[in-house]
């Protein structure tokens, strides 16, 4: 999320027609097209964050600036040439790194939270196994994972929470 993404399309010197069809998970479809015989491009229902400039000397790649969850979906590029039609399909999935926080609850037990991640983060504890996990799903497709230690090992002074996620791994320690 927040990065730019470039989706490439097969380049062929004999392009007659080139189209990008975008079917997002949320909202209506978007179409971008280029006709070689008139050297024209067309754009329908596409957000300004999708940049595509195609012509005889330009690449047919599609750039999505500041990718967000709304851009998730299927992206299909079709190139029409005298030799045939060529397709490339992308299934764009957006990763949202969770925000890690660690605190002590009213009973002095450590509580680790991986907030608003997509997909849900995996939360665990170093040197501890007696914990609970709760998940809360949000309307935007992200999930908050909360883990609470119910009993700490008396020999351990600093407790470490570890968060695993496809966007990265994080850890934080606390003494309650």
From TrEMBL:
SUPFAM superfamilies hit by this protein: Immunoglobulin
Bilayer topology: Single-pass membrane protein
Record domain Ig-like: where: 1-93, 112-175
Family named by the database record: Belongs to the CD200R family.
Gene Ontology CC entries for this record: external side of plasma membrane
A matching Pfam family: V-set
Protein's recorded name: MOR1B protein
Keyword Iron-sulfur: no
Keywords for the protein's UniProt record, in alphabetical order: Disulfide bond, Glycoprotein, Membrane, Transmembrane, Transmembrane helix
Keyword Transmembrane listed: yes
GO-annotated biological processes: regulation of neuroinflammatory response
């Amino acid at each position: 999320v927040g990065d730019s993404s470039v989706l490439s399309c097969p380049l062929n010197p004999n392009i007659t027609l080139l189209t990008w069809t975008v079917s997002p998970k949320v909202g209506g479809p978007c179409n971008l097209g280029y006709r070689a015989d008139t050297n024209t491009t067309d754009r329908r229902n596409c957000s300004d964050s999708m940049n595509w400039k195609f012509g005889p000397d330009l690449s047919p790649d599609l750039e999505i600036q500041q990718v967000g969850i709304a851009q998730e979906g299927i992206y299909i590029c079709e190139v029409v040439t005298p030799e045939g039609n060529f397709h490339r399909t992308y299934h764009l999935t957006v990763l949202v790194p969770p925000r890690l926080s660690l605190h002590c609850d009213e009973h002095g037990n450590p509580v680790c939270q991986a907030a608003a991640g997509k997909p849900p983060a995996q939360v665990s504890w170093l040197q501890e196994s007696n914990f609970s996990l709760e998940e809360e799903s949000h309307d935007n497709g992200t999930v908050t994972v909360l883990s609470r230690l119910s009993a700490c090992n008396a020999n351990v002074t600093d407790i470490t929470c570890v968060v695993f996620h496809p966007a990265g791994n994080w850890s934080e320690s606390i003494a309650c």
